[in-house]
Amino acid sequence: MFQFTTFRARVFWSLVPIFCVLLVFIGFGDFYEQKRLAEDEIKGRARSMAENLAYSGRLGVLTEDRWLLEAALQSVTGAADFAYVWIYGEKWKPLVHAPENVVNLMRLKPELDEQGKNRLSQHGEIHFRTFFAGSQKYVEYIVPVASTQSNSSYELQVELAAGGRPDISQKRQQTIGAVRLGLSMDRVDAHMGSFLQWRGWSVGLFFCLSTVAIYIFADRITRPINRLTEHAKKMSQGLLSLSIPVASRDEIGQLSTAFNEMGRALNELYLSLERKVAERTKQLSAVNEKLAEASEHKSRFLANVNHELRTPLSSIIGYARLLRRETEGQISSLQRDNLEDLLRNAERLLALIDSLLDLAKIESGKMEVHPELVQIDELVQSAVTTIEPMLNKEQIRLVCDVPVDIAPVYTDGEKLRQILLNLLGNAVKFTNRGEIKISACQVNGDFKLAVGDTGIGIDNADLARIFEEFDRGPLASEGQYHGTGLGLAIVKRLVDVLGGSIAVESEVGKGSMFTVTLLIKKSQNGSL
Ligand SMILES: Nc1ncnc2c1ncn2[C@@H]1O[C@H](COP(=O)(O)OP(=O)(O)O)[C@@H](O)[C@H]1O
Ligand SMILES: [Mg+2]
Protein backbone atom coordinates (compact mmCIF):
# COMPACT_ATOMS: atom_id res chain seq x y z
CA MET A 1 0.00 0.00 0.00
CA PHE A 2 1.25 3.47 -0.90
CA GLN A 3 2.42 5.36 2.18
CA PHE A 4 2.18 9.15 2.41
CA THR A 5 5.18 10.77 4.00
CA THR A 6 3.35 13.95 4.98
CA PHE A 7 -0.11 14.77 6.23
CA ARG A 8 -0.37 17.44 3.49
CA ALA A 9 0.21 14.81 0.78
CA ARG A 10 -2.45 12.63 2.36
CA VAL A 11 -5.03 15.46 2.36
CA PHE A 12 -4.04 16.49 -1.19
CA TRP A 13 -4.16 13.02 -2.71
CA SER A 14 -7.41 12.20 -0.91
CA LEU A 15 -9.22 15.24 -2.37
CA VAL A 16 -7.83 15.30 -5.93
CA PRO A 17 -9.31 11.93 -7.04
CA ILE A 18 -12.73 12.90 -5.60
CA PHE A 19 -12.60 16.12 -7.62
CA CYS A 20 -11.54 14.22 -10.73
CA VAL A 21 -14.46 11.79 -10.48
CA LEU A 22 -16.87 14.67 -9.79
CA LEU A 23 -15.66 16.63 -12.82
CA VAL A 24 -15.89 13.62 -15.14
CA PHE A 25 -19.38 12.83 -13.84
CA ILE A 26 -20.64 16.40 -14.28
CA GLY A 27 -18.91 16.65 -17.70
CA PHE A 28 -20.63 13.55 -19.05
CA GLY A 29 -24.03 14.60 -17.66
CA ASP A 30 -23.67 18.00 -19.24
CA PHE A 31 -22.58 16.53 -22.58
CA TYR A 32 -25.59 14.22 -22.85
CA GLU A 33 -27.99 16.97 -21.81
CA GLN A 34 -26.57 19.29 -24.49
CA LYS A 35 -26.82 16.54 -27.08
CA ARG A 36 -30.42 15.79 -26.17
CA LEU A 37 -31.37 19.49 -26.39
CA ALA A 38 -29.73 19.89 -29.82
CA GLU A 39 -31.39 16.72 -31.12
CA ASP A 40 -34.79 17.77 -29.74
CA GLU A 41 -34.42 21.15 -31.42
CA ILE A 42 -33.65 19.65 -34.85
CA LYS A 43 -36.39 17.03 -34.49
CA GLY A 44 -38.94 19.76 -33.62
CA ARG A 45 -37.84 21.78 -36.63
CA ALA A 46 -38.08 18.77 -38.97
CA ARG A 47 -41.61 18.06 -37.77
CA SER A 48 -42.88 21.60 -38.14
CA MET A 49 -41.24 21.89 -41.61
CA ALA A 50 -42.91 18.62 -42.67
CA GLU A 51 -46.28 19.69 -41.24
CA ASN A 52 -46.08 23.13 -42.92
CA LEU A 53 -45.19 21.51 -46.21
CA ALA A 54 -48.06 19.04 -45.84
CA TYR A 55 -50.41 21.96 -45.30
CA SER A 56 -49.09 24.20 -48.05
CA GLY A 57 -48.82 21.31 -50.54
CA ARG A 58 -52.41 20.12 -50.08
CA LEU A 59 -53.69 21.67 -53.31
CA GLY A 60 -50.74 20.42 -55.30
CA VAL A 61 -51.29 16.87 -53.98
CA LEU A 62 -55.02 17.05 -54.68
CA THR A 63 -54.53 18.26 -58.22
CA GLU A 64 -51.18 16.49 -58.68
CA ASP A 65 -50.00 19.74 -60.18
CA ARG A 66 -46.25 19.49 -60.46
CA TRP A 67 -45.72 23.22 -60.70
CA LEU A 68 -47.65 23.84 -57.46
CA LEU A 69 -45.80 21.07 -55.68
CA GLU A 70 -42.39 22.30 -56.71
CA ALA A 71 -43.30 25.79 -55.63
CA ALA A 72 -44.23 24.34 -52.23
CA LEU A 73 -40.92 22.49 -52.08
CA GLN A 74 -39.08 25.81 -52.42
CA SER A 75 -40.02 26.63 -48.82
CA VAL A 76 -37.96 23.70 -47.43
CA THR A 77 -35.10 23.04 -49.84
CA GLY A 78 -33.18 26.15 -48.83
CA ALA A 79 -33.65 25.62 -45.08
CA ALA A 80 -30.71 24.83 -42.80
CA ASP A 81 -29.87 21.12 -42.37
CA PHE A 82 -32.21 20.18 -45.21
CA ALA A 83 -31.36 16.72 -46.61
CA TYR A 84 -34.24 15.46 -48.77
CA VAL A 85 -38.00 15.63 -49.29
CA TRP A 86 -40.66 13.58 -51.04
CA ILE A 87 -44.28 14.40 -51.60
CA TYR A 88 -46.59 11.44 -52.16
CA GLY A 89 -49.98 11.56 -53.74
CA GLU A 90 -52.86 9.12 -54.04
CA LYS A 91 -51.91 5.49 -53.38
CA TRP A 92 -48.58 6.75 -52.06
CA LYS A 93 -47.31 7.58 -55.49
CA PRO A 94 -44.17 9.75 -55.28
CA LEU A 95 -45.07 13.03 -56.96
CA VAL A 96 -42.01 15.23 -56.50
CA HIS A 97 -38.79 15.06 -54.57
CA ALA A 98 -35.65 17.10 -53.93
CA PRO A 99 -32.77 17.06 -54.46
CA GLU A 100 -32.83 15.46 -57.86
CA ASN A 101 -30.19 12.81 -57.20
CA VAL A 102 -31.36 11.91 -53.66
CA VAL A 103 -31.82 8.22 -54.54
CA ASN A 104 -28.25 7.84 -55.76
CA LEU A 105 -26.86 10.15 -53.16
CA MET A 106 -28.34 8.54 -50.07
CA ARG A 107 -29.48 5.19 -51.39
CA LEU A 108 -33.03 5.68 -50.07
CA LYS A 109 -36.03 3.93 -51.55
CA PRO A 110 -38.46 6.43 -53.03
CA GLU A 111 -41.45 4.27 -52.01
CA LEU A 112 -42.86 4.19 -48.48
CA ASP A 113 -42.74 0.83 -46.70
CA GLU A 114 -46.00 -1.02 -46.02
CA GLN A 115 -46.05 -0.37 -42.29
CA GLY A 116 -45.68 3.37 -42.86
CA LYS A 117 -48.44 3.37 -45.40
CA ASN A 118 -50.85 1.57 -43.06
CA ARG A 119 -50.19 3.91 -40.18
CA LEU A 120 -50.73 6.95 -42.36
CA SER A 121 -53.87 5.72 -44.06
CA GLN A 122 -55.61 4.25 -41.01
CA HIS A 123 -54.60 6.58 -38.17
CA GLY A 124 -53.21 9.60 -39.96
CA GLU A 125 -50.19 9.18 -37.63
CA ILE A 126 -46.96 11.09 -37.98
CA HIS A 127 -44.08 8.73 -38.51
CA PHE A 128 -40.63 9.52 -37.19
CA ARG A 129 -37.20 7.84 -37.28
CA THR A 130 -33.47 8.58 -37.10
CA PHE A 131 -31.01 6.62 -39.19
CA PHE A 132 -27.51 6.55 -40.57
CA ALA A 133 -26.69 6.80 -44.23
CA GLY A 134 -23.01 6.30 -44.62
CA SER A 135 -21.42 8.10 -41.70
CA GLN A 136 -24.12 10.74 -41.44
CA LYS A 137 -27.09 10.71 -39.14
CA TYR A 138 -30.53 11.88 -40.33
CA VAL A 139 -33.91 12.52 -38.77
CA GLU A 140 -36.92 11.73 -40.94
CA TYR A 141 -40.59 12.73 -40.50
CA ILE A 142 -43.44 11.38 -42.60
CA VAL A 143 -46.62 13.41 -42.06
CA PRO A 144 -49.94 12.84 -43.75
CA VAL A 145 -51.33 15.40 -46.22
CA ALA A 146 -54.95 15.75 -45.23
CA SER A 147 -57.79 17.34 -47.15
CA THR A 148 -60.77 18.70 -45.22
CA GLN A 149 -64.21 17.90 -46.78
CA SER A 150 -67.29 19.99 -45.82
CA ASN A 151 -70.86 18.60 -46.23
CA SER A 152 -72.32 19.40 -49.68
CA SER A 153 -75.49 21.54 -49.94
CA TYR A 154 -77.39 18.47 -51.12
CA GLU A 155 -76.43 16.52 -48.02
CA LEU A 156 -77.53 19.46 -45.84
CA GLN A 157 -81.00 19.49 -47.51
CA VAL A 158 -81.43 15.73 -46.89
CA GLU A 159 -80.64 16.17 -43.21
CA LEU A 160 -83.09 19.09 -42.84
CA ALA A 161 -85.86 17.08 -44.53
CA ALA A 162 -85.31 14.31 -42.01
CA GLY A 163 -86.19 16.84 -39.25
CA GLY A 164 -82.74 17.00 -37.73
CA ARG A 165 -80.50 19.98 -37.25
CA PRO A 166 -77.63 19.68 -39.64
CA ASP A 167 -74.16 20.35 -38.07
CA ILE A 168 -72.61 22.84 -40.40
CA SER A 169 -69.31 22.85 -38.49
CA GLN A 170 -68.76 19.11 -39.16
CA LYS A 171 -65.81 18.57 -41.48
CA ARG A 172 -64.17 15.30 -42.62
CA GLN A 173 -60.45 14.78 -42.73
CA GLN A 174 -59.08 12.54 -45.45
CA THR A 175 -55.46 11.49 -46.01
CA ILE A 176 -54.67 12.20 -49.64
CA GLY A 177 -50.92 11.89 -49.57
CA ALA A 178 -47.80 12.31 -47.44
CA VAL A 179 -44.75 14.46 -47.01
CA ARG A 180 -41.47 12.73 -46.18
CA LEU A 181 -38.82 15.15 -44.98
CA GLY A 182 -35.31 14.40 -43.84
CA LEU A 183 -32.92 16.76 -42.04
CA SER A 184 -29.21 16.09 -41.57
CA MET A 185 -28.00 15.92 -37.98
CA ASP A 186 -24.51 16.93 -39.02
CA ARG A 187 -24.84 20.24 -37.31
CA VAL A 188 -25.67 18.52 -34.01
CA ASP A 189 -22.46 16.52 -34.26
CA ALA A 190 -20.47 19.63 -35.17
CA HIS A 191 -22.10 21.50 -32.30
CA MET A 192 -21.33 18.66 -29.90
CA GLY A 193 -17.73 18.57 -31.18
CA SER A 194 -17.18 22.24 -30.45
CA PHE A 195 -19.06 21.91 -27.16
CA LEU A 196 -16.81 19.03 -26.17
CA GLN A 197 -13.72 21.03 -27.06
CA TRP A 198 -14.87 24.06 -25.12
CA ARG A 199 -16.00 21.95 -22.20
CA GLY A 200 -12.68 20.05 -22.25
CA TRP A 201 -10.75 23.29 -21.94
CA SER A 202 -13.00 24.66 -19.24
CA VAL A 203 -12.92 21.38 -17.25
CA GLY A 204 -9.12 21.25 -17.63
CA LEU A 205 -8.80 24.82 -16.41
CA PHE A 206 -11.21 24.17 -13.58
CA PHE A 207 -9.26 21.05 -12.66
CA CYS A 208 -5.98 22.99 -12.57
CA LEU A 209 -7.52 25.75 -10.48
CA SER A 210 -9.14 23.30 -8.10
CA THR A 211 -5.86 21.37 -7.77
CA VAL A 212 -4.12 24.61 -6.79
CA ALA A 213 -7.00 25.39 -4.43
CA ILE A 214 -6.77 21.91 -2.87
CA TYR A 215 -3.01 22.33 -2.49
CA ILE A 216 -3.46 25.67 -0.74
CA PHE A 217 -6.28 24.19 1.36
CA ALA A 218 -4.14 21.18 2.35
CA ASP A 219 -1.25 23.52 3.14
CA ARG A 220 -3.47 25.74 5.29
CA ILE A 221 -4.78 22.73 7.20
CA THR A 222 -1.42 21.09 7.72
CA ARG A 223 0.72 24.17 8.42
CA PRO A 224 -0.35 24.46 12.10
CA ILE A 225 0.11 20.70 12.50
CA ASN A 226 3.62 20.98 11.02
CA ARG A 227 4.38 23.85 13.35
CA LEU A 228 3.14 21.73 16.25
CA THR A 229 5.31 18.81 15.15
CA GLU A 230 8.39 21.06 14.87
CA HIS A 231 7.84 22.33 18.40
CA ALA A 232 7.20 18.84 19.73
CA LYS A 233 10.52 17.75 18.20
CA LYS A 234 12.34 20.65 19.81
CA MET A 235 10.65 19.82 23.14
CA SER A 236 11.78 16.21 22.81
CA GLN A 237 15.33 17.53 22.39
CA GLY A 238 15.05 19.17 25.80
CA LEU A 239 13.83 22.69 24.93
CA LEU A 240 10.93 22.38 27.35
CA SER A 241 10.59 26.11 28.00
CA LEU A 242 9.59 26.73 24.35
CA SER A 243 5.94 27.56 23.80
CA ILE A 244 3.94 27.19 20.61
CA PRO A 245 2.16 30.36 19.42
CA VAL A 246 -1.60 29.72 19.59
CA ALA A 247 -3.12 31.32 16.49
CA SER A 248 -6.64 29.89 16.56
CA ARG A 249 -9.28 28.60 18.92
CA ASP A 250 -10.06 25.46 16.93
CA GLU A 251 -8.90 21.91 17.72
CA ILE A 252 -5.33 22.73 16.60
CA GLY A 253 -5.33 25.78 18.88
CA GLN A 254 -6.57 23.64 21.77
CA LEU A 255 -3.91 21.04 21.01
CA SER A 256 -1.21 23.75 20.97
CA THR A 257 -2.44 25.06 24.33
CA ALA A 258 -2.44 21.52 25.75
CA PHE A 259 1.08 21.04 24.39
CA ASN A 260 2.28 24.28 25.97
CA GLU A 261 0.79 23.26 29.31
CA MET A 262 2.37 19.83 29.05
CA GLY A 263 5.73 21.43 28.23
CA ARG A 264 5.41 23.79 31.20
CA ALA A 265 4.50 20.90 33.52
CA LEU A 266 7.39 18.83 32.18
CA ASN A 267 9.76 21.76 32.58
CA GLU A 268 8.69 22.27 36.19
CA LEU A 269 9.02 18.55 36.83
CA TYR A 270 12.45 18.57 35.21
CA LEU A 271 13.60 21.58 37.25
CA SER A 272 12.29 20.09 40.49
CA LEU A 273 13.97 16.81 39.57
CA GLU A 274 17.24 18.62 38.96
CA ARG A 275 16.84 20.39 42.30
CA LYS A 276 16.17 17.06 43.97
CA VAL A 277 19.16 15.44 42.26
CA ALA A 278 21.41 18.32 43.36
CA GLU A 279 20.03 18.00 46.90
CA ARG A 280 20.53 14.22 46.93
CA THR A 281 24.01 14.58 45.43
CA LYS A 282 24.86 16.98 48.22
CA GLN A 283 23.51 14.53 50.80
CA LEU A 284 25.36 11.71 49.07
CA SER A 285 28.65 13.57 49.08
CA ALA A 286 28.13 14.32 52.78
CA VAL A 287 27.52 10.60 53.37
CA ASN A 288 30.52 9.80 51.19
CA GLU A 289 32.68 12.09 53.28
CA LYS A 290 31.41 10.33 56.41
CA LEU A 291 32.10 6.97 54.79
CA ALA A 292 35.62 8.04 53.87
CA GLU A 293 36.06 9.17 57.46
CA ALA A 294 34.70 5.83 58.70
CA SER A 295 37.02 3.99 56.33
CA GLU A 296 39.88 6.06 57.68
CA HIS A 297 38.82 5.11 61.21
CA LYS A 298 38.62 1.46 60.15
CA SER A 299 42.13 1.56 58.70
CA ARG A 300 43.40 3.21 61.85
CA PHE A 301 41.56 0.63 63.94
CA LEU A 302 43.07 -2.22 61.93
CA ALA A 303 46.53 -0.75 62.35
CA ASN A 304 45.83 -0.47 66.07
CA VAL A 305 44.51 -4.05 66.16
CA ASN A 306 47.71 -5.12 64.53
CA HIS A 307 49.71 -3.31 67.11
CA GLU A 308 47.56 -3.71 70.19
CA LEU A 309 46.39 -7.30 69.70
CA ARG A 310 48.88 -9.02 67.46
CA THR A 311 52.01 -7.81 69.28
CA PRO A 312 50.99 -8.91 72.81
CA LEU A 313 49.53 -12.14 71.42
CA SER A 314 52.80 -12.92 69.62
CA SER A 315 54.73 -12.34 72.84
CA ILE A 316 52.23 -14.54 74.80
CA ILE A 317 52.88 -17.32 72.29
CA GLY A 318 56.66 -16.70 72.47
CA TYR A 319 56.64 -16.84 76.31
CA ALA A 320 54.37 -19.87 76.36
CA ARG A 321 56.72 -21.73 74.00
CA LEU A 322 59.69 -20.65 76.19
CA LEU A 323 57.85 -21.80 79.31
CA ARG A 324 57.08 -25.16 77.71
CA ARG A 325 60.75 -25.65 76.81
CA GLU A 326 62.14 -24.39 80.16
CA THR A 327 59.75 -26.39 82.31
CA GLU A 328 60.33 -29.68 80.43
CA GLY A 329 60.10 -32.47 83.12
CA GLN A 330 59.52 -30.01 85.99
CA ILE A 331 55.72 -29.67 85.87
CA SER A 332 52.92 -32.19 86.16
CA SER A 333 51.31 -33.60 83.02
CA LEU A 334 48.06 -31.70 83.81
CA GLN A 335 49.98 -28.41 84.00
CA ARG A 336 51.69 -29.34 80.72
CA ASP A 337 48.33 -30.09 79.03
CA ASN A 338 47.01 -26.73 80.22
CA LEU A 339 50.08 -25.02 78.83
CA GLU A 340 49.60 -26.82 75.47
CA ASP A 341 45.96 -25.70 75.42
CA LEU A 342 46.95 -22.11 76.12
CA LEU A 343 49.48 -22.20 73.29
CA ARG A 344 47.04 -23.80 70.80
CA ASN A 345 44.29 -21.27 71.57
CA ALA A 346 46.71 -18.34 71.36
CA GLU A 347 47.94 -19.61 67.99
CA ARG A 348 44.35 -19.97 66.71
CA LEU A 349 43.58 -16.47 67.90
CA LEU A 350 46.67 -15.17 66.10
CA ALA A 351 45.64 -17.03 62.91
CA LEU A 352 42.16 -15.49 63.16
CA ILE A 353 43.57 -11.98 63.61
CA ASP A 354 45.90 -12.54 60.65
CA SER A 355 43.02 -13.74 58.48
CA LEU A 356 40.84 -10.79 59.49
CA LEU A 357 43.62 -8.36 58.73
CA ASP A 358 44.27 -9.97 55.35
CA LEU A 359 40.59 -9.82 54.44
CA ALA A 360 40.30 -6.19 55.56
CA LYS A 361 43.35 -5.29 53.53
CA ILE A 362 41.92 -6.95 50.39
CA GLU A 363 38.48 -5.37 50.95
CA SER A 364 39.95 -1.89 51.27
CA GLY A 365 41.68 -2.35 47.91
CA LYS A 366 45.01 -1.71 49.54
CA MET A 367 46.35 -5.09 48.58
CA GLU A 368 49.16 -4.41 46.11
CA VAL A 369 50.49 -6.94 43.64
CA HIS A 370 54.28 -7.29 43.47
CA PRO A 371 54.97 -9.53 40.48
CA GLU A 372 58.28 -11.38 40.24
CA LEU A 373 59.58 -14.53 38.60
CA VAL A 374 58.46 -17.27 40.96
CA GLN A 375 60.23 -20.65 40.91
CA ILE A 376 57.28 -23.00 41.36
CA ASP A 377 59.23 -26.01 42.74
CA GLU A 378 60.84 -23.79 45.38
CA LEU A 379 57.48 -22.30 46.33
CA VAL A 380 55.84 -25.74 46.62
CA GLN A 381 58.80 -27.05 48.65
CA SER A 382 58.64 -24.20 51.15
CA ALA A 383 54.87 -24.66 51.58
CA VAL A 384 55.37 -28.38 52.15
CA THR A 385 58.01 -27.63 54.79
CA THR A 386 55.60 -25.26 56.55
CA ILE A 387 52.70 -27.71 56.49
CA GLU A 388 54.57 -30.95 57.23
CA PRO A 389 54.68 -30.54 61.04
CA MET A 390 50.86 -30.52 61.07
CA LEU A 391 50.65 -33.75 59.09
CA ASN A 392 49.93 -37.16 60.57
CA LYS A 393 52.63 -38.90 58.57
CA GLU A 394 51.53 -42.43 59.47
CA GLN A 395 48.11 -41.96 57.98
CA ILE A 396 48.66 -39.43 55.18
CA ARG A 397 51.07 -39.30 52.28
CA LEU A 398 52.06 -35.91 50.86
CA VAL A 399 52.83 -36.14 47.14
CA CYS A 400 54.31 -33.40 44.96
CA ASP A 401 53.73 -33.68 41.23
CA VAL A 402 55.72 -30.74 39.94
CA PRO A 403 57.83 -31.22 36.77
CA VAL A 404 61.46 -30.47 37.50
CA ASP A 405 61.75 -28.31 34.38
CA ILE A 406 58.60 -26.25 35.07
CA ALA A 407 59.18 -22.68 33.94
CA PRO A 408 59.02 -19.89 36.52
CA VAL A 409 55.78 -17.91 36.63
CA TYR A 410 55.67 -14.11 36.63
CA THR A 411 53.30 -13.39 39.52
CA ASP A 412 53.13 -12.24 43.14
CA GLY A 413 54.99 -15.09 44.91
CA GLU A 414 53.90 -14.17 48.43
CA LYS A 415 50.21 -14.26 47.48
CA LEU A 416 50.56 -17.52 45.57
CA ARG A 417 52.30 -19.01 48.63
CA GLN A 418 49.46 -17.86 50.90
CA ILE A 419 46.91 -19.43 48.48
CA LEU A 420 48.80 -22.73 48.47
CA LEU A 421 49.19 -22.69 52.26
CA ASN A 422 45.49 -22.07 52.83
CA LEU A 423 44.49 -24.87 50.43
CA LEU A 424 47.04 -27.24 51.97
CA GLY A 425 45.89 -26.24 55.48
CA ASN A 426 42.32 -27.24 54.58
CA ALA A 427 43.48 -30.49 52.94
CA VAL A 428 45.43 -31.43 56.04
CA LYS A 429 42.58 -30.42 58.33
CA PHE A 430 39.85 -32.34 56.46
CA THR A 431 41.84 -35.49 55.57
CA ASN A 432 42.30 -38.30 58.11
CA ARG A 433 44.02 -40.85 55.90
CA GLY A 434 45.14 -41.34 52.35
CA GLU A 435 46.95 -38.82 50.24
CA ILE A 436 47.37 -35.10 49.73
CA LYS A 437 48.72 -34.21 46.31
CA ILE A 438 50.14 -30.92 45.07
CA SER A 439 50.40 -30.69 41.29
CA ALA A 440 51.55 -27.85 39.04
CA CYS A 441 51.67 -27.61 35.26
CA GLN A 442 51.47 -25.21 32.34
CA VAL A 443 48.89 -25.82 29.62
CA ASN A 444 47.90 -23.60 26.70
CA GLY A 445 49.36 -20.45 28.21
CA ASP A 446 47.79 -21.16 31.63
CA PHE A 447 49.53 -22.05 34.85
CA LYS A 448 47.58 -24.55 36.95
CA LEU A 449 48.23 -25.27 40.62
CA ALA A 450 46.07 -27.98 42.19
CA VAL A 451 45.69 -29.38 45.71
CA GLY A 452 43.85 -32.71 45.92
CA ASP A 453 43.03 -34.83 48.94
CA THR A 454 41.21 -38.00 49.94
CA GLY A 455 39.41 -36.27 52.82
CA ILE A 456 35.79 -35.86 53.87
CA GLY A 457 34.78 -34.07 50.68
CA ILE A 458 32.12 -31.37 50.24
CA ASP A 459 28.46 -31.80 49.42
CA ASN A 460 27.44 -30.43 45.98
CA ALA A 461 24.88 -28.11 47.58
CA ASP A 462 27.63 -26.44 49.67
CA LEU A 463 30.14 -26.03 46.85
CA ALA A 464 28.80 -22.64 45.76
CA ARG A 465 29.10 -20.97 49.15
CA ILE A 466 32.34 -22.29 50.61
CA PHE A 467 34.16 -19.23 49.17
CA GLU A 468 31.95 -16.81 51.14
CA GLU A 469 33.49 -15.38 54.28
CA PHE A 470 32.62 -17.12 57.59
CA ASP A 471 30.87 -19.93 55.70
CA ARG A 472 31.89 -23.31 57.01
CA GLY A 473 29.12 -25.41 55.56
CA PRO A 474 27.80 -28.24 57.75
CA LEU A 475 30.97 -28.07 59.87
CA ALA A 476 29.95 -24.78 61.47
CA SER A 477 28.21 -26.56 64.32
CA GLU A 478 30.76 -29.38 64.65
CA GLY A 479 33.52 -29.18 67.18
CA GLN A 480 35.75 -31.70 65.43
CA TYR A 481 37.20 -29.31 62.83
CA HIS A 482 38.15 -25.88 64.13
CA GLY A 483 38.15 -22.94 61.78
CA THR A 484 36.92 -19.45 60.97
CA GLY A 485 35.43 -19.87 57.51
CA LEU A 486 37.80 -17.19 56.20
CA GLY A 487 40.50 -19.33 54.51
CA LEU A 488 38.75 -19.93 51.16
CA ALA A 489 37.28 -16.40 51.12
CA ILE A 490 40.86 -15.07 51.31
CA VAL A 491 42.02 -17.58 48.66
CA LYS A 492 39.23 -16.47 46.30
CA ARG A 493 40.08 -12.79 46.72
CA LEU A 494 43.81 -13.37 46.30
CA VAL A 495 43.18 -15.36 43.09
CA ASP A 496 41.02 -12.48 41.85
CA VAL A 497 43.76 -9.98 42.71
CA LEU A 498 46.20 -12.08 40.64
CA GLY A 499 43.70 -12.09 37.74
CA GLY A 500 43.07 -15.85 37.87
CA SER A 501 40.26 -18.23 38.77
CA ILE A 502 39.64 -21.09 41.18
CA ALA A 503 37.61 -24.24 40.63
CA VAL A 504 36.64 -27.07 42.96
CA GLU A 505 35.59 -30.65 42.36
CA SER A 506 34.54 -32.77 45.31
CA GLU A 507 32.63 -35.84 46.37
CA VAL A 508 31.53 -36.50 49.91
CA GLY A 509 33.66 -39.22 51.51
CA LYS A 510 36.08 -39.43 48.60
CA GLY A 511 37.95 -36.16 48.62
CA SER A 512 38.31 -32.74 47.08
CA MET A 513 40.42 -31.06 44.44
CA PHE A 514 40.98 -27.28 44.32
CA THR A 515 42.54 -25.94 41.08
CA VAL A 516 43.91 -22.41 40.72
CA THR A 517 44.42 -21.19 37.16
CA LEU A 518 46.57 -18.13 36.37
CA LEU A 519 47.22 -16.60 32.99
CA ILE A 520 50.94 -16.75 32.25
CA LYS A 521 52.17 -13.16 31.88
CA LYS A 522 55.43 -11.99 30.46
CA SER A 523 57.76 -10.13 32.83
CA GLN A 524 58.97 -6.67 31.93
CA ASN A 525 62.21 -8.03 30.48
CA GLY A 526 60.21 -10.38 28.25
CA SER A 527 61.01 -13.65 30.02
CA LEU A 528 58.25 -15.79 31.53
N1 LIG B 1 39.90 -29.87 51.47
C1 LIG B 1 38.64 -29.77 51.94
N2 LIG B 1 37.94 -30.91 52.20
C2 LIG B 1 36.67 -30.82 52.69
N3 LIG B 1 36.05 -29.68 52.98
C3 LIG B 1 36.71 -28.53 52.74
C4 LIG B 1 38.03 -28.51 52.23
N4 LIG B 1 38.43 -27.23 52.09
C5 LIG B 1 37.39 -26.47 52.51
N5 LIG B 1 36.36 -27.25 52.92
C6 LIG B 1 35.05 -26.78 53.40
O1 LIG B 1 34.94 -25.40 53.13
C7 LIG B 1 34.69 -24.68 54.33
C8 LIG B 1 35.36 -23.32 54.24
O2 LIG B 1 36.78 -23.49 54.31
P1 LIG B 1 37.62 -22.28 54.86
O3 LIG B 1 37.13 -21.03 54.28
O4 LIG B 1 39.05 -22.61 54.68
O5 LIG B 1 37.20 -22.27 56.37
P2 LIG B 1 37.73 -23.14 57.58
O6 LIG B 1 38.92 -23.88 57.09
O7 LIG B 1 38.11 -22.11 58.61
O8 LIG B 1 36.63 -23.98 58.02
C9 LIG B 1 35.21 -25.57 55.37
O9 LIG B 1 34.58 -25.32 56.61
C10 LIG B 1 34.87 -26.95 54.86
O10 LIG B 1 33.52 -27.24 55.14
MG1 LIG C 1 40.66 -23.14 56.21
Key traits:
five-stranded mixed β-sheet; binds adenosine-5'-diphosphate; binds magnesium ion; 528 residues; rod-shaped; single chain
Instruction: Give the distance, in angstroms, between the N- and C-terminal Cα atoms.
Output: 68 Å
The count of helical stretches stands at 13
Mean pLDDT: 87
CA-based gyration radius:
64 Å
3D architecture notes:
With 528 residues, this protein is α+β, with helices and mostly antiparallel strands. Helix content is 56%, strand content 18%. The protein has a five-stranded antiparallel sheet, with helices on both faces. It has a five-stranded mixed sheet with strand order 7-9-10-12-11, with helices on one face. Strand 9 and strand 10 form a beta hairpin. Helix 7 packs parallel to helix 8 and helix 8 packs antiparallel against helix 9. The chain is rod-shaped and about 200 Å long. The site of magnesium ion has 4 residues, from helix 11.
